[in-house]
User: Which sequence fits this backbone?
């Protein structure tokens, strides 16, 4: 045995005396991974640790670069925006210095999708960050956003609509459980719309109406399919959605104290901004200092989304692109059920007798097979195995939990 190792006397296992380097597996099967999101409004770094294929956020860095403001009339990224981006990525690179290449994924979105000089700028960004940067397509961005939202939301069998209003594009995803079914990305965002419709920071009824109409025109290209498919419960996964929901809730702008975002609440916020003449003139609680400039554009886009897709209410969701990127890195999104992960964690926490669990599994399989004709046995084995995973182990964990807390089911 390594003389520098130590023993966990409660389990008898050997523990390393040092922490594993980021991206390195340890005896407890965890590693650190990182996602970098080069968004049109802000650059973000998220570091997380995964244990049994669940990700636990550790720390994050955000830099409001607003790179989309640097797109010229001929869609070239100007030098000032490039310098802001490179400075932010250099700071991220310091945090990621000890990470392995395979443990970091950096993705660039709308602004670099449309920048004509992106091929010249990207090598500079990769040098500043120290890792490759991938410019992803709109639908790939939508897919990753849905993965992140799915893992952050409570389990549900219902259809969900996830909307992400970004700086340069807005993604729309309809999905059920862990599967995205319909994905679109439209070229409208709170930074690009601010540049086009609110360039001087002033908010008038005319400028707001023109922004809403421009957004509605974009959404009309997908609205028929989305309404026909059925949107189900709507969630906003972007910072724009969370900021608007917070303002509406803190200032009682929604009818009857409704949570999240409502059409009436958006209308009330619109009127307040028009009266104030600018977002800086608002006297409201919860105003986001880092998003104040782009708040009118974000509100106009959200209003058009509610109108064209006939959404009564939207709930803010925490998970988005960065979380989706990290789960996608694990390679288990389509194959792995997160409930099994929870079961494994509880077996360790409550010291479940796994040998007894194995005996229960075999007994359940045996009874299931004995009940059926030979031609049905293969199907029944599969069903019994799922029953073991979804019910048998959960039932056993309930009993183990009781015993761990000093009680027992005597019935």
Assistant:
């Amino acid at each position: 045995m390594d003389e520098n190792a130590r023993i966990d006397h409660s389990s008898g296992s050997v523990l390393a005396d040092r922490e594993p380097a980021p991206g390195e597996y340890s005896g407890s099967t965890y590693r650190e991974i990182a996602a970098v999101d080069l968004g049109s409004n802000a650059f973000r770094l998220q570091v997380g640790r995964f244990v049994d294929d669940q990700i636990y956020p550790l720390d994050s860095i955000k830099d409001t670069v607003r790179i989309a403001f640097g797109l010229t009339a001929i869609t070239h990224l100007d030098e000032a925006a490039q310098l802001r981006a490179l400075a932010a990525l250099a700071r991220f690179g310091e945090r990621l210095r000890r990470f392995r290449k395979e443990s970091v994924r950096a993705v660039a979105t709308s602004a670099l999708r449309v920048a004509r000089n992106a091929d010249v700028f990207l090598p500079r960004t990769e040098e500043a960050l120290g890792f490759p940067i991938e410019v992803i397509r709109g639908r790939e961005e939508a897919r990753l956003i849905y993965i992140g939202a799915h893992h952050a939301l409570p389990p549900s069998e219902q259809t969900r609509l996830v909307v992400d209003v970004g700086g340069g594009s807005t993604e729309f995803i309809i999905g059920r459980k862990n599967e995205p079914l319909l994905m679109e990305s439209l070229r409208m965002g709170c930074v690009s719309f601010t540049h086009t419709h609110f360039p001087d920071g002033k908010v008038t009824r005319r400028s707001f109406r023109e922004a809403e109409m421009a957004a509605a025109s974009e959404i009309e290209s997908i609205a028929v399919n989305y309404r026909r498919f059925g949107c189900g419960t709507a969630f906003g996964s972007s910072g724009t959605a969370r900021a608007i929901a917070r303002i509406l809730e803190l200032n009682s702008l929604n009818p009857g104290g409704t949570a999240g975002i409502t059409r009436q609440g958006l209308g009330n916020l619109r009127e307040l901004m028009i009266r104030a003449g600018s977002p800086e003139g608002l006297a409201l609680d919860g105003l986001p200092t880092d998003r104040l400039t782009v708040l009118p554009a974000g509100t106009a886009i959200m209003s058009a989304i509610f109108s064209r897709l006939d959404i009564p209410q939207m709930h803010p969701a925490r998970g988005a692109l960065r979380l989706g990127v990290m789960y996608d890195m694990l390679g288990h999104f389509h194959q792995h059920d997160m409930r099994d992960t929870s079961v494994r964690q509880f077996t360790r926490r409550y010291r479940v007798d796994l040998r007894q669990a194995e005996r229960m599994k075999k007994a359940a399989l045996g009874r299931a097979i004995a009940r059926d004709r030979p031609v049905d046995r293969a199907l029944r084995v599969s069903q019994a195995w799922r029953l073991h995973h979804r019910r048998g182990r959960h039932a056993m964990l309930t009993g183990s939990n009781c015993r761990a807390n000093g009680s027992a089911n005597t019935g």
Remarks:
- The chain is about 45% helix and 20% strand.
- Residues 315 and 407 are 39 Å apart (CA to CA).
- The first helix runs from residue 79 to 95.
